[in-house]
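User: We ran a pulldown and think these components assemble together. Before we commit to crystallization trials, I'd like a predicted model of the whole complex to look at. Sequences follow.
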Amino acid sequence: MRPRTHPLLLAFAGLVFVFLLGPLVIILGAALSDTSFLTFPPRGLTLHWFANVFQVEAFKRTMLTSFLLAIGGTALSMTIGIPAAYALARYRIVLPRALANLFVLPILIPEIVMGFSLMKSLAIGWGMPIVASLLIGHALLVLPYCVRVVGASLNAFDFSIEEAAVSLGCPRWRAFFIVVLPNVKPGIIAGFILAFITSLNDVSVSIFLTGPGVSTLPIQLLAHMEQFFDPTIASVSVLLMFVTVAVMAVVERTLGLTFLTK
Amino acid sequence: MSSRLRAWLLATPATLLVLVFLVLPVLATLATTFGDPKGPFAPYAAFFTSKFRMAVLWRTMEVAVTTTLISLVVGFATAWVVARAPRRIKSIMIIAAVFPLLTGVVVRSFAWLVILGKNGILNDALLRIGAISEPLSMLYTQGAVVVAMVYLFVPLMVLTLVGVLEAIPQDLTEAAASLGATPSATFRQVILPMAVPGLIVGAVLVFTGSFTSYATPQLLGGERQMMMGTFLYQRAMVMFDWVGASTIAAVMVVVTLATVLAMSHLARRLNPVAG
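Assistant: Here's a predicted model for the assembly, 537 residues in total across the polymer chains.
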């Protein structure tokens, strides 16, 4: 028997959800309006502004950059994050405790400080090309997701299965690929997709690392917003919301969205 | 191969990535502030005696604290409802909270630009119903920044607290009730103390997130409502004052780390289960 929740509290929560979703609905409406300015409710419906997104060269280019950067940065981070997560879960006793904390450092250090420091050291001090420092910046940014989400799956994995494979003559590296990895696949997919969306939406690190000729979509949007105020931005925002929906669908199918409340 | 060696080999690439490309650059930034020809603490003296810089720091504190307090109250009440909702409704509510959370900060701040702008939706609506005769200037005020920040962080708070509230065993509240505790006594003496560690985690996330934010104060606060994040960017990329920017960075690191440490200490002391 659960006691009933007070109706006033229910109404309040309802208002909170209107507050949370309303602004996003407004963007959707503004993107569909056939006026040349942002308005809600839309007056007359058109998909013109979505077509316009792909006519603005800067949006097309940065969209591709952001997408490739998010895939590349996450792949890089996963490649080195999965072995680290495995080592932390499998050999917990032999590794220093602080190591787990080291891998979440990118969350602890303010992103904007990270972006500024990376710009100063990597881009200017060490003369790294823009693309390389962006890639490293984003790999760092998402490392905590890779290590933590995959780590959560690994902690639930029974390593005696791996030991069984090894004792039956399977080489260790092969046992890792055919026994361990398939068992933590949901964690890897969910971690990848959460890291991907984090990288795709990043502003604070990218704002320092983008440079002449190379920019990311959020940075381009930010610059565009300060000059123009037309429904094209709303359309790009809606396209980004579609990506969010796809990400949520993947997380729901792998670890379940309630994973995010843990 | 010993397991110690194997463990280290596997963990080395990630360790190096963080040490070389994060720890080293951040330490270099901090070191910059002590290498000033005018003396090791000169940049800090300049920071803490400048009226303008202190105003930025206080404004940032004010916005972050206000955002945290509002998010705590709104988030707790909402999480309470979500945690007790029937299964199906609960999952819809969680979807509704995750969706904005995973939508980028630029998109979410842009929404408030559209709502609060001079020709924005709110002014439009107020004009139409005749509540005002001239559009209000709501953008570039502290209020606009706080509203957008609360919008940014409430989903995070809700999701954090739903997990915490669900972890409180039903038996405990039932035991309290069967021993004669009124619902409000149960809430104050059982639920609230159990939720405190979660509230602290949520508060730390929201405070550090809003204290160090960049995009939202940039879009909704502008020059007039400069905050630490936008101030750091302006010093570094507009004025090319790297020592000044590094000093702002150092202050941000110290404030966030001190908050995290103080709050996790507090959480340990207040934890009724561990204590």
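Chain A is about 75% helix and 0% strand. That may be worth checking against your pulldown data before setting up trials.

User: Thanks, that helps.
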